[in-house]
Amino acid sequence: MGLVEIMATACSFLLLILTFPVSIFLVFKVVQEYERAVIFRLGRLRSGGARGPGIFFVLPCIDNYAKVDLRTVSFDVPPQEVLTKDSVTVNVDAVVYYRVEEPLKSIVQVSNYSHSTRLLAATTLRNVLGTRNLSEILSERENISHTMQNVLDIATEPWGVKVERVEIKDVRLPVQMQRAMAAEAEAAREARAKVIAAEGEMKASRALKEASDVIAESPAALQLRYLQTLNTISAEKNSTIIFPLPMDIIQPFLQMAKK
């Protein structure tokens, strides 16, 4: 401690005694459970680290302090216009959750840790999304959020800030891109429908072929099918019923005609 600092401290104590008991209300400060106080005396950081929670003592004129909130804070990253890896322009916004882990660093190492963290989050969002394709941005939000959290956490560690969570809120596409994606999805659905219909036709034709093979091997099966068809026709209220003539009845007459 230098001579000037000793003299300033002595004058501060003298002022405290002369203004007693009014000064007693000015020298005692209280910090809450979720707060810490970083105290400077004549510009130097006081030993002992951050104070709190509870009550602490400051000398008038030579001491000043800064309170740091240790609770988790969230903020919205403004929508960022990002050019993806496949040259598509999208607007993306996110939300970041962080807290102060080391109060001394948050005051000494950076001028305004809150503002710096917000600017860094916006820059990191653009940088991370610029390395991804549009399909990856739409389908891998959780992976992108985890990557952003790691990048931000490493960058803010010297400031005593811990980034706890990052979430991608919304991805907005240009109107033309939305229409193109909708048309592509519709075409894909129609293609799948045609494939399913073709597979159904193929299975139906195979079933008909197997049925025809069975009927060709057994004439009795054809007669049973014929009787079943008549039963179905008779159940309907038709005014006219046409009975087809079985080929096995007229077969002898056809042979006689050929002779």
UniProtKB/TrEMBL annotation:
<keyword id="KW-0812">Transmembrane</keyword>
<protein>
    <recommendedName>
        <fullName>Band 7 domain-containing protein</fullName>
    </recommendedName>
</protein>
<dbReference type="InterPro" id="IPR001972">
    <property type="entry name" value="Stomatin_HflK_fam"/>
</dbReference>
<keyword id="KW-1133">Transmembrane helix</keyword>
<dbReference type="InterPro" id="IPR036013">
    <property type="entry name" value="Band_7/SPFH_dom_sf"/>
</dbReference>
<dbReference type="InterPro" id="IPR018080">
    <property type="entry name" value="Band_7/stomatin-like_CS"/>
</dbReference>
<keyword id="KW-0472">Membrane</keyword>
<comment type="similarity">
    <text>Belongs to the band 7/mec-2 family.</text>
</comment>
<dbReference type="InterPro" id="IPR001107">
    <property type="entry name" value="Band_7"/>
</dbReference>
<dbReference type="GO" id="GO:0016020">
    <property type="term" value="C:membrane"/>
</dbReference>
<feature type="domain" description="Band 7">
    <location>
        <begin position="26"/>
        <end position="185"/>
    </location>
</feature>
<dbReference type="Pfam" id="PF01145">
    <property type="entry name" value="Band_7"/>
</dbReference>
<dbReference type="InterPro" id="IPR043202">
    <property type="entry name" value="Band-7_stomatin-like"/>
</dbReference>
<feature type="transmembrane region" description="Helical">
    <location>
        <begin position="6"/>
        <end position="31"/>
    </location>
</feature>
